[in-house]
Amino acid sequence: MPNEPGDEWQISSALMPTGGSLSQGSNGDFVFTLDNPDAYGQDSFTYKVCHEVCTTLCDTANVLISIERDCFEESEEERVNVFTPNGDDINPEFDPLEPYRLAGCVPSDNEAELTVVNRWGEAVFRAAPYRAWDGTNNGGAKLPQGAYYYFLKVKTREKTLVVKGAVNLILDK
């Protein structure tokens, strides 16, 4: 903030962020440092600007910090790789988009598509726009128990990514 001759302003933090620390440089800039480098979501802080001579001349501002993570850095061990559409309502669908949706990485299901192939590489299910796989082919026929491979194409705010992996379809109760 440019100062006129004789004008001196004091900048201070009024309300600290909850998920990190805030420090102030000599030029008045604030630096936010996350407590947990794996954290994501939103945090905020409030700062106050006051004139040094006329101390009643003050104002405050709120700063909202959006912390995004690279949603697609997870390891294959973190992904669900089995589902059981056998009528017991436990794990009835394979929804590989769910963790990315919950983390806020995908604006909508319309920005994703899912292709599932059998062990011979034949596409047995394709959903564009996205929907979870219930163990049937695109015609609605139940597929046999076994290992399948999937390709999840996701359009994020910045880029299009493909997540791929194996999933086991188990029909036994």
Helix/strand layout:
Layout (H helix, E strand, L loop, with lengths): L8 E7 L4 E5 L5 E5 L6 E11 L6 E10 L14 E2 L14 H5 L9 E6 L5 E5 L18 E10 L4 E10 L4
Parallel strand pairs: 6-10
Antiparallel strand pairs: 1-4, 2-3, 4-5, 7-8, 7-9, 9-10
Short description, anyone?
The chain is an all-beta fold. 3% of the residues lie in helices and 41% in strands. The protein has a 5-stranded mixed β-sheet with strand order 6-10-9-7-8, with no helix packed on it. Strands 1-4-5 form a 3-stranded antiparallel β-sheet, with no helix packed on it.
Report on this structure.
By secondary structure, this protein is mainly beta. It has 2 domains: 9-67, no CATH class; 76-169, Immunoglobulin-like (Sandwich), CATH 2.60.40. It has 1 helix and 10 strands, in the order ββββββαββββ. It has one helix at residues 98-102; strands at residues 9-15, 20-24, 30-34, 41-51, 58-67, 82-83, 112-117, 123-127, 146-155, 160-169. The termini are far apart. Mean pLDDT is 83; it is low at 1-5.
Topology as a string of helices (H) and strands (E): EEEEEEHEEEE
Estimate the mean pLDDT confidence. 83
Coarse morphology: rod-shaped
Got a strand count?
10
Q: What's the CATH class label of the largest domain?
A: Mainly Beta
Secondary structure: helix percent = under 10%
Low-confidence stretches: 1-5
The assigned structural class equals: mainly beta
Order of strands across the biggest sheet? 6-10-9-7-8
Which labels suit this protein?
single chain; 173 residues; mainly beta; Immunoglobulin-like; 2 domains; five-stranded mixed β-sheet; three-stranded antiparallel β-sheet; 10 strands; rod-shaped; disordered N terminus
